[in-house]
């Protein structure tokens, strides 16, 4: 009887061990499928970008905030503290700091600073719907950049979507002009356009060069996130002390006594949202492409624009609503064009292999 019990116990332990191993393998398989899943990365990027845009608009417009470099530095610091804490708990992992890699990655950090700063300035002067619509122009720059650097192709349908994007931007311009009530409003509007166009070029350069560097260094998502934010912190801190007003009067203006705690909390929340956008941006670029990454941002315009109309004092007129609609159609046309192009490429592969 004891032998039988020993035998059955052994079989039970063996069965449990096999099931545990099988479950661990299935868990790892599911985890890997999620990490390398394009649609999941796109969905995560959509949510994080919406949160990031709305939070930044709230901070920059809600409290007469003008210390943009400081806000961006706080975002990067919160990001580094967050992923450092997760790494210490063995939840995530990323490579250790390396001076040689940091030197090679430093131009991307400068481009990141240029991108997020010009983005914050544009968002400060433009409404969320107009900001998201003009952001589409970045897609055109990236698409033709991919043609030059990665052997991409712009089809007729994709070109049609580009024309629709330009048209939606022109319509948004008329909507903003119709809503302007004074010369000061027009000045702020044109200043916002200047920062917006600067942001388009900076964003395109950042995405294209980062994608090329990721291919060369084989950086994973958290590696990219770690180096981007870590190398940005000293640049942002240097710029805030050199180029921004740190007088006592301006500090009181940015952090008034009656809502100082709310302002600081909003900055920290903005930093927390930057953690999501930093990771999801690198994730989406890695498992899809830089053009798809930017296109997802374009398809995001509808919920982002609606959030701007609901939570902020954005202009609502025929031109503004039409620009959102045309911009959304442009995004759909481009998405269909990319799917058709990928399908044609897959159909040509067997013929090429023969």
UniProtKB/TrEMBL annotation:
The chain crosses the membrane at residues 34-55, 67-86, 107-127, 133-150, 157-175, 187-209, 225-243, 263-285, 292-312, 318-337. SUPFAM superfamilies: Multidrug resistance efflux transporter EmrE. Coiled coil: none annotated. The keyword Transport applies. Keywords: Cytoplasmic vesicle, Endoplasmic reticulum, Golgi apparatus, Membrane, Sugar transport, Transmembrane, Transmembrane helix, Transport. It is a multi-pass membrane protein. Its main location: Golgi. Belongs to the TPT transporter family. SLC35D subfamily. Involved in the import of GDP-mannose from the cytoplasm into the Golgi lumen. PANTHER family: SOLUTE CARRIER FAMILY 35. Homooligomer. This is GDP-mannose transporter. It comes from Candida verbasci.
